[in-house]
Structure formats: structure tokens, C-alpha cells
Design a protein that fits this description.
235 residues, alpha/beta, Rossmann fold, 8-stranded mixed beta sheet, 8 strands, 34% helix, AB_hydrolase_fold, Mycobacterial_A85_antigen, AB_hydrolase_1, Esterase/lipase superfamily enzyme
């Protein structure tokens, strides 16, 4: 499995970002790390290794970027409005830098997004905000309500980066074309968030799969089982 390291200065986040890319061809899959995780986390915890067959056979090309969790939602040293503004810059980075990069390299006009735990938030938030760019969404143990990080403060940046708030009113036609999998498990601390999001999708008659695995916790072993299964649904 080929692996390449990239580092670049992002004007949208005003910081340097790092990323690992696995494979040399195939459908582009962006995989976000968990809370405050770095670009190498999904490799170190075996998530990328669990889908080695897909990479080696040229079916997918996987991009594992940094996030800016410690500068945005988890930054308790700044006002919640500034946390949201900072995260809005990360969203612009995805729109204007990373997603076009992945599309250009692979020659594919849309991407798949995936992530475990808080990485599932990053994936779902972007997919539901920009469904014209995303054909597949795979979350594993995700949590989707960002208001837990805003200390009771609320503004437009928070609304438009909180899927459980903005999704009910969105009628973008590409939402109904997306392959959506919400992976969770019987003892997952985030199971309730997945059921909540699934109910929103049901109310909108958006097809999706709420995958609740038995006898499993919010942890890497079940996510390593889920990820190859979910990638196999890419058509």
C-alpha cells in the first residue's frame, strides 16, 4: 500500500496542515481523525490497514488530513463565537483546498467522507452542508450536535455547522442521492446521537442505513470491522 505525506499552508485556516494519502488511484475517500487526533491516527489505530485490500486494488484512494479541533470547538480559551468562526475556516479549507485536490488527483467529481467518533461529526457536517460534493458518507460512533461545545452561545456559524439543526430545513436535491451509513453499536456512548440523526433523515425520507452492531463499545475494534464493510458499498 503506497503512502505519501503532504504538508501545506492553508490560507483558510491560517495554519500549516499535514496529511497522509494512501494509494495511487481509485475513488477519493477523506477520513477524519477522532477528537484532537492527528493525520496519522487512523493509520496508527489500524483503520487504514483494515481496508488495505481496497487500496491495493485501486478501488479507493484515501486522504487522512489533520483537523483543527484544539483551535476550534475544543479551545476553551476563546469565546464560542470565535470557536465557530475558526471552524468555519476549516470548512472553507475543505471546500476550496482538500476536496478539489482529491477530485483532481482521482478524476472523480465527488468524494466519500468518513470518520470515527468526532471524525464522524466532521464528515457528516461537511456532507450535509455540501451534498453536491459528497456521494458517500460513512460515520462510525459519530456525535453530531455541536452545541455541547458552545456553552449556551448560539449564532449562524454554529447553526450552519450543526447538522441536527440545519439538516431538517435543507432541501438540497443531492441529499437524496447520497449513500449514507451511520455506524454505531449496542454500548456506544454516541448511539443516541446516531438514532437522533437517523430520525431526522427518516422524517425527510432520505434513504440511509443505521447500523447498530451488537455487543460492541465506542472503540476502534468495531470501527475496524465497519469500515471495510462500508467501503464495499461504493459503486
Amino acid at each position: 500500500m503506497t503512502e505519501k505525506f503532504h504538508r501545506w499552508h492553508s490560507p483558510n485556516t491560517n495554519t500549516d496542515l499535514e496529511m497522509l494519502v494512501f494509494g495511487d488511484r481509485g475513488y477519493p475517500v477523506i477520513v477524519f481523525p477522532t477528537t484532537k487526533g492527528r493525520y496519522y491516527q487512523n493509520k496508527d489505530f489500524g483503520l487504514i490497514g483494515s481496508v488495505k485490500w481496497f487500496v491495493d486494488n485501486g478501488l479507493v484512494k484515501i486522504y487522512c488530513p489533520d483537523t483543527i479541533d484544539d483551535r476550534s470547538w475544543y479551545n476553551k480559551s476563546i469565546h464560542p463565537a470565535d470557536r465557530a468562526k475558526t471552524y468555519a475556516g476549516y470548512d472553507r479549507m475543505l471546500v476550496n483546498e482538500l476536496i478539489p485536490w482529491a477530485m483532481h488527483e482521482t478524476g472523480v467529481g465527488n468524494v466519500a467522507l468518513a470518520g470515527c467518533s468526532f471524525g464522524g461529526y466532521h464528515a457528516a457536517n461537511f456532507a450535509f452542508k455540501h451534498p453536491e460534493k459528497v456521494r458517500h458518507l460513512f460515520t462510525m460512533g459519530g456525535a453530531f450536535d455541536i452545541k455541547m461545545f458552545t456553552d449556551g452561545y448560539y449564532d449562524d456559524n454554529i447553526f450552519y455547522n450543526n447538522p441536527v439543526d440545519f439538516l431538517p430545513g435543507s432541501n438540497h436535491h443531492d441529499l437524496w442521492q447520497m449513500n449514507i451509513v451511520l455506524g454505531t453499536s449496542e454500548y456506544d456512548i454516541c448511539k443516541g446521537y446516531n438514532i437522533q440523526l437517523s430520525n431526522i433523515l427518516k422524517q425527510k425520507d432520505i434513504k440511509h442505513w443505521l447500523d447498530i452492531r451488537p455487543f460492541a463499545n465506542h472503540d476502534w475494534p468495531i470501527w475496524r470491522e465497519m469500515f471495510p464493510h462500508y467501503l464495499s458499498t461504493i459503486k
